User: Fold Glycosyltransferase family 29 protein from Paracoccus methylovorus.
Amino acid sequence: MTRLGFLLARTLRNETALQRLSVPQSELLTALRGKSVALVGNARALAETDHGARIDAADLVIRINRAPMPQPASHGTRTDWLALAVRLSGADRARIAPSCTLWMSPKRKRLDWSTATSPGFYLHPLADYQALNARLGAPPTTGAMMIDLIARSQMARLELFGFDFFASLSLSGRRTAQEVPHDFKGESEWVQELMLADRRIIRH
Assistant:
């Protein structure tokens, strides 16, 4: 697809055309099979931990949005996959340097050409977003969408770091829980249910 074709498909919300840029979800799920996965959220409280070595020891390290990494001791240094719902600056893209970029947001007009043509690009299906939205009764966070996706795979283990559901706010912004459209209490309860049902999922 040309850049002009991409811009046209994005403007017209031509989901079929945009999906042609994406690796199939089945390919992503296959890549997760048998892997230990570290999913790193952006809670400020993570900066007060020493989880960095454990994060980097995972087979696959997935970070979210601008992926702040204030220090290796707490956050580690690796990023294999990056799950996005925001546009990245060129500096952030170079700093994070993921091998695979996943666009999780249903807001296709935010999707930029650099992301859509990056290696291993994945476009999260709108139907998956809508199903989780209905389950939670509110728009899911990028982290929740990733948990939902990974939990459906045959991964060996999913460890969650930096997920306190906005209790300590986010390292990547200044907004409070009341200023964002998510139900953090609902997401916390949902994740707790997942962990009780699936012992492969651990939250630190």
Summary: The chain has a mean pLDDT of 93. The chain has one domain: 3-203. The two ends are 42 Å apart (CA to CA).
